[in-house]
Amino acid sequence: MLLRLLFVLLIALNIAVGAWLLLGQNDTHAHLPTDPGVNKLHLLSELPPPAASVTSSASATNVAAATPAQSSSAANPLSAQPSTNTLSYACMALGPFATQEDLRVARNALEPQVQRMRARQEQTTQSRGWWVYLPATSSHAAALAEARQLAAKNIQDYFVISGAGDDQNTVSLGLFKDPANARKRRDQIAEAGFPAQMSERTETVPEYWLDLIPVDSAHFDWRSRVHDTAIGSHSTGCF
């Protein structure tokens, strides 16, 4: 009888311990849906917003914050750009210089105020004066005969051109710098009965130019350094 009672008590004790182990633990352990170390499941509504949404929100916030500053800059463009003292420059040409030495002197004088220079040579036609003459005859003897006729009428200062060339057998009556003096000589010979003519004599000569870019055209005074009054200036293409 006693053993049966002890057996019943043990069974009751086991039932009580099992009930305590099942129902008497902390809620945290009692309601775990997963094993330890396994991530817990969440509903979509419980998830945080995606990174793109966060970034977009941040960008929108930055744009909203930057808008007043940009509007202020647009309203006052001068304040948005740093003020600088911009130097003005223009390309120009000086010349013509008669010799390369004149060009070299001017180049050395202007170098401190110039950021770039170049020298160039051009060919130009230059007047040598106005020539009064009798047209060429068919022979040298005929030209000498005209010269004797001039002497007979007290006309002096003539010269018979001999040898080869376009002016062969021509009687020269003088070369004049002033065309007015040349016309006066021509008319004098024509009144004496001779077919006097006049023409301009030219030659091709070199001339020298200096192209330059001043450091600051607005304050560039080349006249203070180049004192030749025959030298001029004009704008030219940049190089």
TrEMBL record:
Report the residue ranges that make up the SPOR domain in this protein: 124-202
Q: Which residues constitute the signal peptide according to the record?
A: none
Which GO-annotated molecular functions does the record name? peptidoglycan binding
Entries under Pfam families matching the protein: SPOR
Write down the InterPro entries for this protein, in alphabetical order: SPOR-like_dom, SPOR-like_sf
So which domain of life are we looking at? Bacteria
Q: What is this protein called?
A: SPOR domain-containing protein
Q: Which organism is it from?
A: Dyella dinghuensis
